[in-house]
Amino acid sequence: MEPIVQYKDVHKSFGDTHVLKGINLDIRPSEKIAVIGPSGSGKTTIIRLLMTLEEPTKGDIYVAGKNLWKMEKGGKSVPAKEKHLAEVRKDIGMVFQHFNLFPHKTILDNCAMPLIKVKKKKKEEAREEAKQMLDRVGLGDKYDAYPSNLSGGQKQRVAMARALVMKPKIMLFDEVTSALDPELVGEVLEVIRDLAENDEMAMVLVTHEMDFALEIADRVLFLDEGVIAESGSADEVINTSDNPRLQDFLRRFRD
């Protein structure tokens, strides 16, 4: 089966800081991957490159066989224009740490907007699809609420519904529980658990929730200093690896 996403020798620098140092990674359709590692290891940068929020310094990223950051023009490979980026990116959804909801729009309109703006659907059709997704994340009674009326966990579930309504082939989650109060984390993880168990899309979850990663991930990547230092099943990486850097990292969650 062809990978849905491929990273080939991907590097990323911010000024003199070399954040990613030659990432090679294939993500298969339907695969659920958890990415763990210390702060500054490059975890978030990996998915921001895929969402075209950052551009690689070197290397190539392919989505469904298409080069994300380069395009053919006159028989030559040239930097991709926004239209190409948007076309290749259409199969990717992302949920951020801090929700990024529009405060002046209702929850329903927040979720319907991408269908109207990107997929050019009529307003009523978009709102019906948005209702279905809000129902799925447990917010069927909040259609007319505004973000300011919701808890952090509810806002994060709205953000998930907004991404899911586009029916992506791969979903990216960037530390989606890190900004939440501890008592709200469970409701968000429950939605992700449901997606992992019942949806065919691939998922990449950047997380510090080790037990959750062990539960849902087909594969765990440990990033350290800009490289994939460990890759394997959740049990192999979290429970049986003897990598000293990984053991030091995990010890912080076990103490």
Q: What is the N-to-C order of secondary-structure elements (H for helix, E for strand)?
A: EEEHEEEEHEHHHEHEHEEHH
Spans with pLDDT under 50 lasting ≥5 residues?
none
pLDDT averaged residue by residue = 91
Percent helix, as a range, is 25-40%
The termini sit apart by 41 Å
Count of DSSP strands: 12
Strand order of the biggest β-sheet: 8-9-10-3-11-12
Annotation field: number of helices: 9
Strand content: 25-35%
Structural class comes to: alpha/beta
Largest sheet, strands/sense/barrel: 6 strands, mixed
Instruction: Based on Cα principal axes, name the global outline.
Output: globular
Supply Rg: 19 Å
Task: Give an account of the 3D structure.
- The protein has 255 residues and is an alpha/beta fold.
- Helices cover 38% and strands 27% of the residues.
- It contains nine helices and twelve strands.
- It has helices at residues 43-50, 82-89, 107-117, 123-136, 152-164, 182-198, 210-216, 234-240, 244-254, and strands at 5-14, 17-27, 32-36, 58-63, 66-67, 70-73, 76-79, 92-95, 170-174, 202-206, 219-224, 227-232.
- The strands form three sheets. A six-stranded mixed sheet has the order 8-9-10-3-11-12, with helices on both faces. A four-stranded antiparallel sheet has the order 2-1-4-5, with helices on one face. A two-stranded antiparallel ribbon has the order 6-7.
- Helix 4 packs across helix 5 (152-164).
- It is globular.
- The model has no long low-confidence stretch (mean pLDDT 91).
